[in-house]
Design goal:
This protein is globular. Helix content is 50%, strand content 14%. The chain is α+β, with helices and mostly antiparallel strands and 398 residues long. Helix 4 runs antiparallel to helix 5 and helix 4 runs antiparallel to helix 6. It binds flavin-adenine dinucleotide.
């Protein structure tokens, strides 16, 4: 083994796509990320470059103008992008989840209406489950869609934490429709809300108030969304029938978990690269700090975590691509990759000594980005719930 996080068995096309993305990351993202992040500036030139490379349509089938690639290809691209700057991977993440949900669950009309424009990046997706009072407890959603005549609904309520809320033009929003089902999650429905990009009242009854100020994950916009009497046609219900929204969203976040795992792998790799370089440049007590056993062992631990996380992520992606159920594998990957990412990032930060605390050093940004991965697409506690539920199903005592 020479380098960390190599993936065996890739096709020529996958290898070529990844080489292009890595080169783009090294030339366009890494040199600009720190400045853009500190200015909290939207990385428009980088996003345009990703569009030119076809990254918005990576997993959209070729018949709709996409590249028709696998989840594995997508996840490996995300790993590369996050190695450069996590926010850039966040730009395509929600887009990818919404395109995936439409591909899997949309009506033919919805696929024709959205997928070709999503493949080019002309339509950009955001997905919205969370509300001010809930994130983990999705079935408790309060935003309502009430029937308004035979062919429409009126939506009222407040959604929270929309990644790409302002820059997106299509929001997949999970809301409550009264289907009269005794199980709360069976009364949830996903609406596809097409809107202009921007802030303020972007459509009658749809307001994106402002960009939220965050600890990290800067540059990219995270917003609230307020529905106030928004009238939605029934044809905007994902899949055409109400009451299936919870299942649609859970399918979406399952692939989203592989994506978050990939982001964690990318950040951990970058933290390792920075740590192993600095450890050879900085000397104390007459020798490079890499020659002190404590630091060398720390590097060994970091590298082992980077490698293990990559393997778990690749396994979860390949399982999904094979058509197998991957809830447990995706949950395990998300749990392990995000926790290891936080640990590796902190170990690299320690290796940097006082300079790690300086805004001139990249590790400072990674230290603020990594914690989000412990939360997004379900916290570690929620992953443990999913994993244990799956295990108890599989290993049920007779
Ligand atoms: C920057 C950012 C971007 C985001 N982007 C999006 C987005 O695009 N779309 C979207 O829908 N959401 C998004 N989210 C929301 C995110 O998914 C939620 O924050 C996350 O699911 C956690 O929900 P919560 O914040 O309500 O925490 P809570 O659910 O209130 O949890 C609080 C704490 O309690 C723990 N906990 C909760 N329930 C249990 C339990 N049953 N057992 C044990 N522990 C439990 C949690 O693990 C956590 O530690 C984003 C969040 C952030 C910070």
């Amino acid at each position: 083994m020479t380098r960390l996080a190599q993936t065996l068995g890739l096709t020529e096309i996958q290898t070529e796509i990844l080489a292009n993305v890595r080169s783009f990351v090294d030339k366009q993202i890494i040199p600009n990320a720190q400045e853009l992040e500190h200015a909290d500036e939207y990385p428009q030139a980088i996003v345009d470059g990703m569009g030119e490379m076809g990254l918005f349509g990576l997993m959209i089938p070729e018949e709709y103008g996409g590249l028709g690639e696998s989840l594995l290809t997508y996840a490996l691209c995300v790993e590369e992008l996050a190695r450069g700057w996590m926010s850039v991977s966040g730009v395509i993440n929600t887009h990818f989840i919404v395109a995936y949900m439409i591909r899997q669950h949309g009506t033919d009309e919805q696929k024709q209406r959205f997928l070709p424009r999503m493949a080019t990046g002309e339509v950009r997706g955001a997905f919205s489950m969370s509300e001010p009072e809930l994130g983990s407890d999705v079935a408790a959603i309060k935003t309502t869609a009430k029937r308004d005549g035979d062919d429409g609904y009126v939506i009222n309520g407040q959604k929270m934490w929309l990644t790409n809320g302002g820059s997106s033009t299509l929001v997949a929003a999970l809301v409550r429709t009264e289907e009269g089902h005794e199980k709360p999650h069976k009364n949830l429905t996903t609406f596809l809300v097409e809107k202009p990009a921007g802030f303020g009242e972007v459509l009658p009854g749809v307001t994106i108030p402002r960009k939220l100020d965050k600890m990290g994950y800067k540059g990219i916009d995270t917003t609230e969304l307020i529905f106030d009497g928004y009238r939605a046609p029934a044809t905007d219900i994902l899949g055409g029938a109400p009451g299936r929204g919870f299942a649609h969203m859970m399918d979406g976040v399952e692939v989203g978990r592989v994506n978050v795992s990939a982001r964690a792998c990318g950040i951990a790799q970058r933290a390792f690269e920075l740590g192993v370089k600095y450890a050879q440049q900085r000397s104390t007590f007459g020798k490079p700090i890499a020659d002190h056993q404590a630091i060398a062992f720390s590097l060994a631990e970091m590298a082992t975590k980077v490698e293990a996380a990559h393997l778990m992520m690749v396994n979860a992606a390949r399982l999904k691509d094979s058509g197998e159920r991957n809830d447990v594998a995706a949950g395990m990957a998300k749990y392990l990759c995000s926790e290891y990412c936080a640990e590796v990032t902190q170990a690299s930060f320690r290796i940097h000594g006082g300079y790690g605390y300086s805004k001139e050093f990249e590790i400072e940004r990674l230290m603020r980005d990594a914690p989000f991965l412990l939360i997004g697409e379900g916290t570690s506690e929620i992953q443990k719930q999913i994993i244990s539920k799956g295990l108890l199903r599989e290993y049920r005592a007779q």
